[in-house]
Structure formats: structure tokens, C-alpha cells
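pasting input
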Amino acid sequence: MTDGATEGFTVRLTNFTGPFDLLLQLISKHKLDVTEVALSTVTDEFIAYIRAMGEGWDLDEASEFLVIAATLLDLKAARLLPAATVEDEEDLALLEARDLLFARLLQYKAFKEAAAHISGLEAAGARRWPRLVSLEPHYAAALPELVLTISPQRLAALAVKAMTPKVAPTVSVDHIHQVRVSVREHAGILRDRLRALQVATFRTLCADCQNTLEVVARFLALLELYREGLISFVQAEALGELTVRWSGGDGAVELRVDEYAGTPAETAADADGQE
Amino acid sequence: MDEHRSLADELAGWAPPPGRPRPETDQVAQAQPAVEVVPAVEPESAAVAEPSAAVAEPVGPLDDAELTAALESILLVVDEPVADDKLAEVLDEPLERVVFALVELSARYTAAGSGIDLRRAAGGWRLYTRPEYADYVQRFVLDGQQSRLTQAALEALAVVAYKQPVTRSRISAIRGVNCDGVTRTLVTRGLIEECGSEPDSGAYLYRTTPLFLEKLGLDSVDQLPQLAPFLPDNVEEIADA
Amino acid sequence: MDEHRSLADELAGWAPPPGRPRPETDQVAQAQPAVEVVPAVEPESAAVAEPSAAVAEPVGPLDDAELTAALESILLVVDEPVADDKLAEVLDEPLERVVFALVELSARYTAAGSGIDLRRAAGGWRLYTRPEYADYVQRFVLDGQQSRLTQAALEALAVVAYKQPVTRSRISAIRGVNCDGVTRTLVTRGLIEECGSEPDSGAYLYRTTPLFLEKLGLDSVDQLPQLAPFLPDNVEEIADA
């Protein structure tokens, strides 16, 4: 995946295999247990890592990171408020979202530990080779004679069938040269679009993106809009379609979006200072 | 690992007969020199003939030493773990006797520090090199070594191992990332396979293969540690909600 | 046959030590439990490690028991007879010592009436089934043998025919399933054969044999139909017809 620091802020990314893995790594880096405090502690870092990912996103990955980032931001915001008793539906929904996140995180953690066990077995197995040699000639000669009635044409057809890709080929975006994009600009696009549509899926919102970097920019822009309380997210199932709902009202909305590192505009310089 | 230890337990107090005389075996050897000759004078006739007809009937029941030796010979030609009941059938011996002979043979190899290791894997028996000598063996195994699995592939494999049969979307949901690519890799490597589809969604279901068990040195997936201790009780319900 | 007798001559008057104690071997086994123990505290580091880096260099010279065990391990996986000087080179031991160990091992197998027979053949050493048990091995080999190829084997054969020379992992990648088993079947049936190995990976390459051409009634692989006329649209129908 991504390594090292990108300009603007310094983060050291180890390999992580998904949003839960990243969360767990961040939590363990702080030597914390999986608690609400831990989640709150790592929220900013989680989002920083997402920013640093830059290239290398695909839409499916992005939506899950986005949902988790949104939940984390919610939880962090709630902690900043004076502790209140659970009285309205919003609090309840937040608690549910938190429990679901904990549950999925712990479930993932269990499988990660199981994977470590399997890795150990695999390592031990790699030092063991099975007997696998050709049959001694006199046994091979005793095999019943092979009946092979296939025609060359059918063999050719079988070859074509075997060589026809079974899944839709994925288009690599690696070769696309890097374009500089502005998160602020994309936030503006999304604001206008969402105000008109009220509700749209993440996929729809990114339908006109020319490259991965633009998807990432839209993704970060959504986080910014979310942070401003202008939108909310709905996702029926994990990795399912992510729906974005406008909650900023009908009036004109001024965006306070800081630019990120690597933005073409001169505003990029102060990107790392934002909180 | 565990079954290895239990194997040893089973055999505790059992004394292998390292050097007992076996006149019968030698007699048999002298009586059947023709078998040594590589045939192939008329390979067609042998090939066309009914399999069973080509095979001479064995001469009476096997004594313990002969049974063990016959098992060793057969194990030398198997190219995948072979079930004990298949061995019993081919040798026309009671299953318990064959199993006992296999367990004893495995323990004898281990006790003698042999470079050959007879192991139970994926529901069968097969000869393996002993890990202590991997460094030497490696230089003779010319066939390209398969690269080790990535962390992502291991995680997906763990989900399949514990949740099988399971759909790709369920694997993805647990890992929080799309798993289509790693699932494909695991299928190509022969570690998991499709096994029908989910009635409601029509999505393919996946399970682990015997090769998975063999590569991991497991007899069955039941030997994997329980997942439960890692998990709070209600996680499944919450996550599925 | 001849070298078999000469082996016997060589060994005449040589007393095999069937049951001698080997404390060294047991110590070695106990000193290296890590190989068997499931570690995996930091799976990433293990998974990322270079295969060769993971291999510890052997610790000093081998004692007699270790040398014999190492030879057993190597001989278990070699398909072609392996020359004693190659074994000596890999084990970094004097040729005489290795030859002596091989001769002794062969004699020990024979004296113990093992079903495994270590013989010198074609200028090298290889493990064979002991002729006395050929009937059982043959019964096992013929059990369940089919005279027709499965659909999977036919498809793999088609891939080899058009992609040769090709590695097993490439066949698997093209077909999207593990093809190690069917590849072996095709080799056993003489339809494909090894033809060297890929320089980078060391993986064996396979090509079709003259028998394959004969069975298809072709003079050369150039006579196979061109693939171009088949459009992906109707591939399924034609192939499944």
C-alpha cells in the first residue's frame, strides 16, 4: 500500500489490510484496549491516514473507510459535549452505531488472530514436503488404456473457454499520470449537487470522476461536509451502497474547507496545520 | 501438532520390534523374482485387461511386518493423503489393524529420527520430509516455491475456514474491504473452492479444500483453535443486525 | 537388476545396525521445537520474509544419524535418481561418507524388511517400492482408475496444448482453479511432459507429448486449429457440446 510521509504531514503507514486493521493498529500503537476512549484518541489519525492514502483507492474500499470515519467523528463530537443521558433518538442511534463498530472491530480482531495462527501453520508446513514423484514405469504401464476421443476442434474450443476471463477485467489506473485536484473545489461540486438532489449515493456522486485521485478528493470533501454537519450517511450493509443525505437546508452555504497537501493552489502550504 | 502428541500417547508403552528376524519375507522375495523385472513386453495386454484381473491375488493374510511393509510401499506411490479405509480395502485387512499399523509406523519413524515423516493430514496418510531437514530438501525441490500468502489473503482464508460455507460478500463485510481479488487468488491456489450458492442471493459459497488442510498440516478444520475465546458473546448478533 | 546385485555384493559381510540407540537425534528434535510450534505473534514479518532468508544455515557438520536422516528427506522428494556426488555436494560432506551412509541405509531398509527400497539406478539413488509388495501397490494404483479424462483434465490439456511450454501455476491461473492434480494425471497418462523449468521461478514447464498428437491424429502441434475463429460469445456452447 502507501508508505512513508506525503508532503504536509508526517505519518508512517505500516501495511494495513482494511479500515478495521488500520483502526486496530492505531489503537495498539497507543497501547489502548478497544474502548470508546481509544476510538476517540485515534479518530484524527485515522482520518489523517485516509488522506495520506491518496492514490490506490477504489470506490468499494473508500465507502467503508468513509462510514467508519463518519462514525468516529460522531463519537468524538459526542464526547466533547457534556455527558448527557440518552434521551433522544439521535443519542440512541449514536450508541447503536458505536456498538456496531465495536462489534465489527472485535469480530475482525478475532479473525485477524485466527489468520495469525493459520500463518504459523503455513510457515511450519512450508518446511515439509510431501512425497510426490512419478509412478514407477511398470505401474504406469499397467494403467487401463486411456480413451481420448476429443477432436482438435473441441480441444480448441476448450482452450478458448479456459482462456476467456471469468470475471470482468479491472481497469488499472496505475498508468494515469497524477493530476492535482482540489478538495475545496470538489466540496463545492458536491454541495451544489447534494443541495439539488437532497439524496445521492456515493457512487453517483463519483460517477463523473476522471481518476482515482478525484474519487479520493470527493471522499475527503464528503468528510469535510460531514464535519460541517451539512450531510449524513446511510449504509444498509457493510460494503453496500453508501447513501449521502443533504441536511444543510436550502440556504446558501459557505464552505470552510482547508486544502490538502498536494493541491495545486498555493493554499496547500497550510494544509497540515488544520484540525 | 496435537494429534502428533496424541499419536505418541497412543503408542506409549508400545515397543517397536526393530530387529526381529523375518524369514517369511525373504522367502517371499525369493519366490517372486519375476515381479522385479520391468515388464513392458506386452504392455497393451496389461493395459487393456480388467484392472482386477491383472493383479495376482495376495497369498493369504499379512503378518504384522508384512502389513507395515505393504503400507510403506503403497505410501511411496500416493500423491495425495490416502484414507485409512481405502488402504484397508486395498490390503483386504480390518480397518483397526491398518490404522494401528500406520500409527505405529509413524511413531517408529519419529522415534528413529528418520528423515521421513508419516503424517495424518486432510483425513488421510502421506509421507513428508521432516522439517529439521528442510534446508537440504529445499535445494532438491526444483519446482518453483509458491510465494507465501499475503496478510489480506490470510485474513480472508481465516474467515472461510471458520465460517464455511461463506459468500464473498460476508468475507468482505467481516474484513471491511472488498475481497473479490484475494478470494480469486485463494481459489487459484487451491486453498478454497466454490461449493454451491446461497439460496436467497444466488451468491457463490466457498469452503476450504483438502489441500488447505494438507498445507497447514491439519487433519480437519476442527483442529483449528476455537474462535469464540477471541470474541465477546454478542458480537455476532450485533454485527449481523 | 545388475546394480542391485552389485549392491548386495558390496554389502556382503556388512552388518546393519538395526536397533542402535541414537540419542543425538532425539536431542536435535527437542532442540528445535520451534518448527512444530505455532508462532505467529507477528505474522506480517513472517509472511513478508524472503523464503531463503527464513532458512537457517545448518549448524555445523552432520553426525551419522543426521546425515542419514537428511538423505532420507532428500530421497523422499526426488523423482529422478540423484547422483551421490550431488548429494555429497549439497550436504557438504565427503563423498565416501555419503556413499557409505547410502549403502548402509539401503541395507538397513532391506534388513528391516521395509516396504521402501533404496536402490542405485541410472547413475543415482532413488526410493522404490520393494518388489515383494508390488501386488499391493498395483492394486492400489489401479483402484478407481478411469480410462477417460475428466472435463477438468481435458481443459487443462487444452491450455497446455495452446500455451506450451507452460507452468502449472500458469495453467491454474488461466483456468481459475488449482490444476496441480489434473496436471499430474496428464503427466502420468503420458499426454504432457516436463520440459525444463522457468528461469525466474524455477517452476517446471510442461508441453504436450507425441502420444498426445497421436491420440488426436495430428502430426504436429502446428496443426491444432487456430483459436481466432472462436468468438467469446459462443465459446461456452462449443466447449460444452
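fyi Residues 1-11, 168-176, 265-275 of chain A have pLDDT under 50 and may be disordered.
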